[in-house]
Amino acid sequence: MDNRRARTKQRIFNAYRSLLIEVGYENIAIEDILEKAPCARSTFYSHFRSADDILIEFCDRQFDHIFASEHEKEIDHDYSPYNGTFAPNQDMAHIFYHAQADQSLLRNVFNSPGSNIISKRIRERLTPFFDKLSRTEEYSIESVPPRIISIMMTESFVALIRHWLDMGCISKPEHVAHFFIKTFRSVN
Fold it and tell me: What share of the chain is helix, strand, coil (3-state, %, to 5)?
């Protein structure tokens, strides 16, 4: 993608994010995005099929960053020491840091008809992570298939994100990740 197209796509993305916070998911029309971006309708549709595609890309961008093999220090957290390693505790805390940074946006989406879209995408992105985790010695449970463990972990994690956001992110991301880990480790 050339720089001009990338900048236009980013403007559309930023306009949508801003509108999610300002007016909420159910009140966003394509016209609003076009006005705020600003861009032509044909330009919008050359990047996205619908406004929901932007929501899916938002989710994908976050998880691409979180599950990347290389990290740089960020303002409120630094996971660069774990580059190239499978560090589930840090990955989970990293998810909570980004959920906290976007809590207004996520609360608006989770409490709207868009909840199904983003919850489904979060599940899709978390499933491979929890599939891998469920096959480790620490998280495997005798006579329980790893896929069942993975499903339980994925569903519980999505519910925990929603609950934590609804409660105003009152615990530190590391603590919430630790609570989750302790819950599933104690099952053994």
Answer: 70, 0, 30
Instruction: Report d(CA 87, CA 20) in Å as an integer.
Output: 32
**CATH 1.10.357 at 50-185, yes or no:** yes
As a whole number of angstroms, the distance between CA 133 and CA 93 comes to 15
Class of domain 1-48: mainly alpha
Query: Which of 57, 58, 93 shows the shortest CA–CA distance to 76?
Result: 93
Question: Does residue 16 contact residue 51 with C-beta atoms inside 8 Å?
Answer: yes
Predicted confidence (pLDDT) per residue in 164-178, tens digit: 999 999 999 999 999
Cβ atoms of 8 and 43 within 8 Å: the answer is yes
- The DSSP output letter for 113 is T
